[in-house]
């Protein structure tokens, strides 16, 4: 390298760098100038590189690359899961649910081992994010503690902040807002709260949780969103085993619908599994 001259990467080097940079920053708008400065190249070179990257990503079903014109424009990588892979994720989840002892007291379904599997949780999170990718989500919210890992990943893929409500009275030094909710596990009235600094009025919130049956926890989070005068984008859960007289009053999407069927021969309840409503949802671009 000649002294005083910056290294100028070859095109294949630029493509690798740009691709990795975008994948590491899902749903974030990256200005062309970022690549021009780092790679010591012209805007036309970046534009040509992005055209090829966009084509390869589409062909290999790696997600969607969108470019936006103008001085404040740039490029965004949306980690959208292809419909075929979406079904594969749903079927893999049903396969995992069909193994082991799943039915707990009160007809709740054990998901602990699934939510502790980093690979499947990452795939579930990307699938959830895919369905809300154009909804301009500002915050992904969950309840302590089962949904935290999943909701954190969904927030990352949506480039949104992650927040979680706590039950009971916390020791936070910040001011909080709280609502009452009916605990689905024990059918008792509890209280959940969120720090004032976590959410602002008019912010768009996606609620993510692991499981829904009676709907009390999700309804509590919805009430908490309203208490902040924020806007609810949707509610998305991994599994649903709805109590028909309560949950159906809530609008939500699920990956897997779980029903209990009594086996007369074994005298035990068994799971009947089907793909959930999330697979019927279509997401269309709404970004200006």
Task: Explain what this protein looks like in three dimensions.
It is a single chain. This protein is an alpha/beta fold. The chain has two domains: 11-78, Winged helix-like DNA-binding domain superfamily/Winged helix DNA-binding domain (Arc Repressor Mutant, subunit A, Orthogonal Bundle), CATH 1.10.10.10; 83-279, Rossmann fold (3-Layer(aba) Sandwich), CATH 3.40.50.2020. It is 33% helix and 26% strand. It is built from eight helices and ten strands. Strands 5-6-4-3-7-8-9-10 form an eight-stranded mixed beta sheet. Helix 7 links the parallel strand 3 (139-143) and strand 4 (161-167). Helix 6 crosses helix 7 (148-158). The chain starts with 10 loop residues before the first helix and ends in a 13-residue tail after the last strand. 33% of the residues are buried.
List low-confidence stretches. none
Number of discrete helical segments: 8
The computed structural class is alpha/beta
Any idea what the radius of gyration is? Answer: 22 Å
Q: Which term fits the overall shape?
A: globular
Output the CATH class name of the largest domain.
Alpha Beta
What's the N-to-C terminus distance? Answer: 44 Å
């Amino acid at each position: 390298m000649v002294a005083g001259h910056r290294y100028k990467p070859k095109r294949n080097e630029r493509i690798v760098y740009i691709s990795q940079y975008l994948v590491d920053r899902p749903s974030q708008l990256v200005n062309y100038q970022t690549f021009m400065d780092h790679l010591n190249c012209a805007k036309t070179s970046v534009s040509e590189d992005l055209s090829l990257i966009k084509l390869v990503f589409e062909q290999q079903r790696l997600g969607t690359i969108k470019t936006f014109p103008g001085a404040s424009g740039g490029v965004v990588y949306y980690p959208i899961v292809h419909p075929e892979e979406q079904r594969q994720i749903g079927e893999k989840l049903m396969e995992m649910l069909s193994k082991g002892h799943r039915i707990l007291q009160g007809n709740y379904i054990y998901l602990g081992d699934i939510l502790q599997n980093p690979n499947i949780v990452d795939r579930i999170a990307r699938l959830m994010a895919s369905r809300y990718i154009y909804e301009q989500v500002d915050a992904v919210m969950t309840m302590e503690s089962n949904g935290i890992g999943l909701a954190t990943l969904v927030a990352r893929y949506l480039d949104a902040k992650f927040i979680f409500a706590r039950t009971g009275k916390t020791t936070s030094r910040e001011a909080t807002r709280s609502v009452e909710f009916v605990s689905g596990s024990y059918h008792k009235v509890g209280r959940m709260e969120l720090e004032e600094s976590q959410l602002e009025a008019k912010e768009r919130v996606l609620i993510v949780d692991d499981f829904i049956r009676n709907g009390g926890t999700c309804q509590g989070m919805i009430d908490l969103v309203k208490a902040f005068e924020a806007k609810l984008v949707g509610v998305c859960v991994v599994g649903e085993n709805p109590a028909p007289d309560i949950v159906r009053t809530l609008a939500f999407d699920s990956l897997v619908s779980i029903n209990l069927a009594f086996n007369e021969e074994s005298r035990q309840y068994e799971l009947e599994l089907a793909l959930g409503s999330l697979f019927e949802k279509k997401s269309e671009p709404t970004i200006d």
